[in-house]
Amino acid sequence: MYRLQSLAARSLIAGALDLCTPLTLTSLTGVRHKSQGPSVEKCGQMRFITAEAKASAGRLDGKMREKTLTMDTLNPQVKAVEYAVRGPIVLKAGEIERYLEEGGTKPFSEVIKANIGDAHAMGQQPITFLRQVVALCTFPELMDSPSFPEDAKWRARRILQGCGGHSLGSYSASPGVECIRKDIAAYIEQRDEGVPSDWENIYLTTGASDGIMTILRLLVSGKDSSRTGVMIPIPQYPLYSAAISEMDAVQVNYYLDEDNCWALDINELHRAYQAAKQHCQPRVICIINPGNPTGQVQSKKCIEEVLHFAYEENLFVMSDEVYQDNVYAPDCQFHSFKKVLYEMGPEYFSSVELVSFHSTSKGYTGECGFRGGYMEVINMDPEVKAQLVKLLSVRLCPPLAGQAAMDVIVNPPQPEEHTFKQFHQEKSSVLGALAEKAKLTEQILNSVPGIKCNPVQGSMYAFPRIFIPPKAVEEAKALGMQPDMLYCLRLLEETGICVVPGSGFGQKDRTYHFR
């Protein structure tokens, strides 16, 4: 019976096709050949082609067709989003670059883009071992090549065994490839000197940004005075303010202490929290350590105070730790929020909800383009965790090449392996150069009249204060822009150096900076 129905269906389809064939380029113009079957109009095609032609001329039945998506109908939360790192300054830099390429002349020969932490774009060389493993995963035929070390080959084989069809072109499970999640958990345990890490609490992400956005989506709820408040440091990385705007949450600013090397003051947290409670419900505190754009490294005591504050006020903690390998000041050390939480005792470690983030984009690898990252989720309600997995499933999985790159970062060559010497040399060279440039940047900026720069303890940025004369401030206001935006535009136009104004990151009133 099923076979008869299938045959009948095929006959109907074939009959329908016969009515519309042959369709040629000339038949689509509405001109019939004598050898052709029925006119295209009989299939309803000419009606749509004619309408399309009229619409392309701008009119249909004498009326202009209106756009469905306009600035009036656009999601208002999208209009509220701002992202200074790729904002107007960068667009202007692109215009100048094109002008120079076309033979135009400026007082400089190239644009130096210091607006974004894109290490490879600024000339940093890739870590050989990481690229070898990813290359082998991408093109397994290279396994037969003697040019690739066995240390890289066995890692690539292990990763591919965890991939569907042993191919990096397959989807992985939404939380990520299982063996990579296990490697990340082992790395965290080693980094935190034995603090346990459960691989099932590890979720691979498309860069740290993807994880941050996902967790914020879980947290934002309520209306009016019960709307979620998100506490963020000022200055902050504009991802946070952009995400808060897009989700229509409430941004709760707490200001870092510029006079104390951008340290986090616990009294400022209390002030910001109490003020915010008047108009929203603060539910989450975000920390960036080491800091972006401020370059500070939080002390263990400071982290303890933040975690105690979160415990007392029942706040969810988001710890952005993508610069954990980028610590340059000899008297500073990276402390993970998770390790400090563990050392505060079971009462804290078993109750404070914490998500920490890491990425392939920073550190010593600078592999921004792979878009690799992970988050570790601690003390999340099991039912909410199921919702997190559901949300991650919607985007299927992070790029597998990025997952493979992340695996190399957490599972690098060991001292007994043949590749360790070259790997260690390359890693030390990158971090040593960054530390040298951090010191050099601080020294040179502080030698310029009208600029004051705090020590760059870590991350990849300096955030100097610029003292702009009153007349320049008035000129900027007359032009309808922030004074530090005017400064950065002039800097770009006169020197070719592209930096981001501090107003894009947030700053105290009547102070001006750039990153």
TrEMBL record:
EC number from the UniProt entry: 2.6.1.2
Metabolic or biological pathway, per its Swiss-Prot or TrEMBL entry: Amino-acid degradation; L-alanine degradation via transaminase pathway; pyruvate from L-alanine: step 1/1
Task: Give the protein's cofactors.
Answer: pyridoxal 5'-phosphate
User: Is Membrane a UniProt keyword of this protein?
Assistant: no
Its GO biological process annotations read: L-alanine catabolic process
State the UniProt keywords alphabetically: Aminotransferase, Pyridoxal phosphate, Transferase
A GO molecular-function annotation: L-alanine:2-oxoglutarate aminotransferase activity
User: Where's the Aminotransferase class I/classII large domain?
Assistant: 166-507
> Keyword Transferase, does the record have it?
yes
InterPro entries named in the record: ALAT1/2-like, Aminotransferase_I/II_large, PyrdxlP-dep_Trfase, PyrdxlP-dep_Trfase_major, PyrdxlP-dep_Trfase_small
- Catalytic activity, as annotated: L-alanine + 2-oxoglutarate = pyruvate + L-glutamate
Q: An example Gene Ontology cellular component term from the record?
A: cytoplasm
Q: What does this protein do?
A: Catalyzes the reversible transamination between alanine and 2-oxoglutarate to form pyruvate and glutamate.
Q: Which family does it belong to?
A: Belongs to the class-I pyridoxal-phosphate-dependent aminotransferase family. Alanine aminotransferase subfamily.
Quaternary data: Homodimer.
The protein's name in its UniProt record: alanine transaminase
